[in-house]
């Protein structure tokens, strides 16, 4: 028979404190066999009015967060006055939500569990399935003749009726973009108009944006953000296109192969046209080191194609697909190819009319509320394939909530010629 530990919960300390006679009396009235109990009894008392525990919260941790703690990393909360708080590690971001607990949980410092409440020598298990505390009734009785019962007092520090559950979410980059757009760089001649109070250093922006450090660095790349004079800046679109166009124009001018672009030559060629730090930052954003070629670089085809397309697809304009693709291809350096997938989240095709067209639709400018975004998307285009709408909805997805699941909830699907389309529910 397995030994049991014995605990009882009392009113706050000061009203009454149990003694050994009380314990033995309760065991007797409960018709328990004392030989089947371990020798330490713990009397538990509800928190007294002097105990301050409002600063203690119960937080659910997943394997990743536990690993971070074991490695000495920090978990930190982020959120402004009008923002819902999130929890971040160095790599992931979590939504935090309060949830009720069906059975109250007690936080009791120094509470002993079964094995720690036994003062008797432990016997060897009789079978592989027995616990280390299991002993025969005769052995237990012999031990109890030698061991006296002891009583220990335990104070409840806090009773939890709720906990905070964490759900991994995508990083919230929109705030980063909005803050950076307020001080976008459009040339030294326009710097006097910039409100210096709205500028952010790397650390200041990291503290403000609701995402982990790793995701934050990815967000800076997504917005093509560079550090200029100690501040994190994005460039005004037309100014960025002008500088990048001059940079890639050096490929033909110097007869460079696409994978043999020279960094210093590029920076020196634009001296006097743009600040050196701006050119260096843009070069680092738009290029990668060439494989097997020391001090030679290759432009990222997708980034170059997107900035060119963004310059062509001005808001409010509509282009015939064939004319746009031709103009787009002619505007990029020879050897680079323009692919429709590079327009992801930047423009949409409308092939429902007699003449297929394309127009600008930037994900960065859409509403942050999923219901408002859905209404705007279906107002812009009556029916979408999953592939078309995914770039505009994926920011609301999570590791357990896919884009297709979101569409099933917020839209209605139909099949046309073997292709699934999504239309508005209402």
Nutshell version of this structure?
The model is unreliable at 121-138 and 140-145 (pLDDT under 50). This protein has 426 residues and is an alpha+beta fold. It contains 14 helices and 16 strands.
Question: Please, could you describe this protein's structure?
Answer:
By secondary structure, the protein is of the alpha+beta class. Among the domains are: 20-114 and 148-168, no CATH class; 170-234, no CATH class; 366-425, Arc Repressor Mutant, subunit A. Helices cover 32% and strands 21% of the residues. The strands form six sheets. It has a four-stranded antiparallel β-sheet with strand order 3-4-5-7, with no helix packed on it. A three-stranded parallel β-sheet has the order 1-2-6, with no helix packed on it. Strand 1 (4-10), helix 1 (20-29) and strand 2 form a beta-alpha-beta unit. It is elongated, with a radius of gyration of 33 Å. Mean pLDDT is 87; it is low at 121-138 and 140-145. Keywords: DNA replication. Belongs to the DCC1 family. One of its GO terms (cellular component) is chromosome, centromeric region.
Core attributes:
426 residues; alpha+beta; Arc Repressor Mutant, subunit A; four-stranded antiparallel β-sheet; 14 helices; 32% helix
Helices and strands, in order, run as EHEHEEEHEEHHHEEHHHEEHEHEEHHHEE
* Approximate shape: elongated
Q: DSSP strand (E) fraction?
A: 15-25%
Instruction: Profile the largest sheet.
Output: 4 strands, antiparallel
- In DSSP terms (H or I, runs of 4 or more residues), the helix count works out at 14
Low-confidence stretches: 121-138, 140-145
Structural class: alpha+beta
């Amino acid at each position: 028979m397995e030994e049991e530990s014995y605990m009882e919960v009392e009113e706050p300390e000061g009203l009454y404190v149990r003694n050994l006679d009380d314990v033995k009396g309760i065991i007797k009235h409960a018709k328990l066999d004392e030989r089947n109990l371990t020798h330490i009894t713990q009397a538990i008392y509800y928190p007294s009015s002097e105990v301050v525990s409002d600063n203690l919260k119960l937080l659910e941790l997943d394997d990743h967060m536990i690993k971070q703690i074991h490695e000495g990393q920090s978990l930190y909360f982020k959120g402004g006055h009008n923002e819902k708080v999130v929890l971040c590690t160095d790599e992931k971001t979590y939504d935090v939500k309060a949830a009720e607990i069906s059975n109250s949980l007690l936080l009791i410092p120094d509470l002993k569990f079964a094995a720690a409440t036994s003062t008797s020598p432990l016997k060897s298990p009789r079978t592989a399935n027995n616990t280390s505390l299991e002993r025969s009734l005769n052995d237990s009785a012999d031990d109890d003749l030698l061991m006296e019962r002891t009583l220990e007092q335990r104070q409840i520090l806090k009773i939890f009726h709720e906990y905070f559950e964490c759900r991994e979410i995508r990083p919230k980059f929109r705030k980063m973009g909005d803050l950076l757009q307020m001080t976008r760089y459009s040339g030294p001649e326009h710097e006097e108009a910039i409100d210096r109070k709205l500028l952010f250093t790397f650390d200041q922006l990291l503290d403000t944006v609701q995402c982990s450090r790793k995701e934050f660095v990815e967000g800076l790349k997504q917005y093509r953000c560079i550090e200029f004079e100690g501040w994190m800046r994005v460039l005004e679109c037309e100014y960025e296109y002008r500088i990048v166009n001059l940079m890639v124009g050096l490929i033909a001018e110097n007869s460079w192969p696409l994978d043999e672009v020279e960094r210093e030559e590029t920076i020196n060629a634009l001296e006097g046209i743009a600040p050196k730090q701006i050119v260096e930052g843009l070069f680092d954003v738009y290029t990668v080191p060439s494989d097997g070629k020391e001090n030679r670089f290759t432009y990222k085809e997708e980034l170059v194609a997107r900035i060119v397309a963004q310059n062509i697809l001005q808001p409010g304009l509509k282009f015939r697909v064939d004319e746009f693709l031709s103009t787009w291809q002619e505007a990029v350096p020879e050897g680079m190819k323009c692919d429709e997938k590079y327009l992801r989240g930047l423009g949409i095709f409308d092939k429902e009319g007699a003449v297929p067209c394309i127009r600008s639709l930037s994900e960065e400018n859409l509403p942050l509320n999923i219901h408002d975004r859905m209404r705007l998307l279906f107002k812009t285009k009556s029916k979408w394939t999953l592939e078309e709408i995914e770039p505009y909805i994926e920011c609301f997805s999570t590791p357990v909530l896919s884009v297709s699941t979101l569409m099933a909830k917020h839209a209605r699907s139909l099949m046309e010629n073997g292709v699934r389309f999504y239309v508005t529910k209402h």
